[in-house]
Design brief:
CATH topology of the largest domain: Rossmann fold
Mean pLDDT: 88
CATH superfamily of the largest domain: P-loop containing nucleotide triphosphate hydrolases
Helix content: 40-55%
Largest sheet: 5 strands, parallel
Strand content: 5-15%
Number of strands: 14
Strand order of the largest sheet: 4-7-8-1-9
Distance between the termini: 63 Å
Radius of gyration: 31 Å
Low-confidence stretches: 489-501
Structural class: alpha/beta
Shape: elongated
Length: 503
């Protein structure tokens, strides 16, 4: 029945409207049933979970369960929790002036009981919007029982001349104040064990205990927790009895395909409209950005237990645009294309978002970032051009012969990260055989895409040891690998990862 909340102001009017009390779990279950029946999109913006996490979450809600999302950083655990308020009614009635969002037909606080006993059907009611029915708390070691549950307020007791056992002297914490709401605790293992113990009664008996006083408040709350498996060993753990009381544990995961990862990055990256209009980013670069995260998650240098957040690719994508924009402004150009070189501008987004194991720390975060970029290039090169490794092993026809011979003749090329598009194109097209191999294996490309693919050939040949690649401030020099080895024998070898001044 549709209730016109703006026309109902008293308990009597509410009774005559046909309103019936429902617990929040029943409310969410009923609304989920309606949405599923209509094939509505329930969790807008959540990608890659359609066949895994979302069905498990829907089953948990249909079962009226409290929930814990268990997964590594950057797996949209909090985002999922925040979207649950879409399953709440637009408005619910509450007794006016209550701290605990008391339902007029099912009050829990002494204040609401006394007010209803005094005024009867004239008891004033208010309507609470669903946006006010979501409470989120980040678990930190300094959180106390008083913060979550509440405590006796001696000043209130003295002012009102009441005994400490009287409910009216209690200052309620976040959880009682979230009655009839969704209550989320992020990073649950960070709560001290004794604080976790204080949640036992709420989850099992749905009431609270404050100090040694007799108090029973049958709270109505949908609990959602988030936790990182890393926390179980590094910072804390979920105590076993508490974990036993959380009905459904839902495992989250990272995107399982490059395409889903790209969609997430495109959705979340903050790219101003003006920036996107003047900068072209080819699909190749979008794939390479995502591949960096995939390579990091499999890297022997990166702590797999810590995970690699999707925020890495989002930040890297934003930096890619900004690098191209900076170059455009320096050269006074009106439009430009992102380059393979611009991947190095994403290094700050990589080094701050990966946790390294001991071997990785020994190598250094900057070198690991270069390694990840190199592996991304190597992983995608064979999708666009013949496999250089296969050419070496099988001694077959070498389509890169003209390019390699040009460098073997003592020629080199310096690609400047800040160079204009005109100079960039002129340099690349001066290399014999480079545009020809691009046209042969990648037809119908625009001039901007051709330039990126020519640059990609040089990077790929360097990764497969056909050429050498050496950083020089903001430039990257490509030259014959043999002469490079002799000329730089007194320097540390470089495979696009060792020079700490190149970005």
């Amino acid at each position: 029945m549709l209730i016109k909340h703006d026309q109902i102001k008293t308990l009597g009017e509410l009774k005559h409207s046909g309103y019936n009390y429902r617990s929040i779990k029943d409310e969410m279950r009923d609304n989920l049933i309606k949405k599923l029946s209509k094939n509505d999109v329930l969790f807008k913006g959540i990608l890659g979970y359609e066949q895994t996490v979302i069905p498990e979450l829907e089953r948990a809600i249909l079962s009226r369960h409290n929930i814990v999302f268990l997964g590594l950083r950057g797996q949209a655990k909090t985002r999922m929790a925040r979207l649950l308020d879409n399953l709440l009614d637009p408005y619910i009635p509450v007794v006016s002036g209550t701290e605990l969002n008391d339902d007029p037909l099912h009050p829990v606080s002494k204040f609401a009981h006394d007010l209803i006993a005094e005024k009867g059907d004239d008891t004033p009611i208010e309507w609470l919007h669903r946006s006010a029915r979501y409470t989120e708390k980040l678990a930190t070691p300094d959180v106390t029982v008083a913060d979550l549950i509440g405590d006796v307020d001696p000043i209130k007791a003295a002012a009102m001349k009441l005994h400490y056992s009287d409910e009216r002297v209690i200052h309620f914490g976040l959880i009682p104040r979230s009655n009839r709401c969704i209550f989320v605790i992020n990073e649950l293992p960070d709560l001290q064990a004794r604080i976790q113990v204080s949640l036992f009664n709420i989850l099992q008996e749905e009431d609270i205990q404050i100090r040694g006083f007799k108090l029973r408040l049958p709270l109505d709350i949908q609990f959602v927790f988030t936790a990182n498996p890393e926390d179980y060993t590094n910072r804390g753990s979920i105590v076993t009895p508490l974990k036993d009381r959380i009905d459904s544990q839902i495992l989250t995961h990272y995107p399982r395909s490059l395409e889903i990862s790209r969609q997430i990055t495109a959705q979340e990256a903050r790219i101003p409209k003006l920036q996107s209009e003047i900068i072209f980013v080819p699909d190749l670069l979008k794939d390479l950005i995502e591949e960096i995260a995939f390579q990091a998650r499999d890297s022997e240098y990166v702590d797999a237990n810590s995970g690699v957040s999707a925020r890495l690719t989002i930040s890297a994508y934003e930096n890619l645009y900004s690098s191209a924009e900076r170059r455009l402004l320096i050269n006074g150009e009106s439009k430009t294309s992102a380059r393979i070189l611009d991947l190095y501008s994403a290094i700050p987004s990589i080094t701050g978002k990966v946790e390294l194991v001991y071997e990785g720390e020994q190598e250094g975060p900057l070198k690991i970032a270069h390694i990840l970029i190199n592996k991304s290039i190597r992983a995608h090169f064979k999708k666009y051009f013949p496999d250089p490794e296969k050419i070496k092993k099988e001694e077959m026809y070498n389509p890169y012969k003209d390019i390699v011979q040009w460098f073997s003749g003592g020629n080199d090329i310096n690609l400047d990260m800040n160079g204009s598009d005109k100079d960039f194109e002129k340099q690349l097209r001066s290399i014999p055989g480079l545009i020809e191999i691009v046209n042969k294996y990648n037809k119908d490309e625009t001039k901007g895409e051709q330039n990126i693919l020519m640059e990609f050939v040089l990077f790929g040949l360097a990764e497969y040891s056909f050429l050498s690649k050496t950083p020089l401030d903001s430039r990257l020099q490509f030259k014959d690998i043999i002469s490079s080895m002799f000329n730089e024998s007194d320097e540390e070898g470089f495979s696009s990862m060792d020079n700490q001044n190149f970005y």
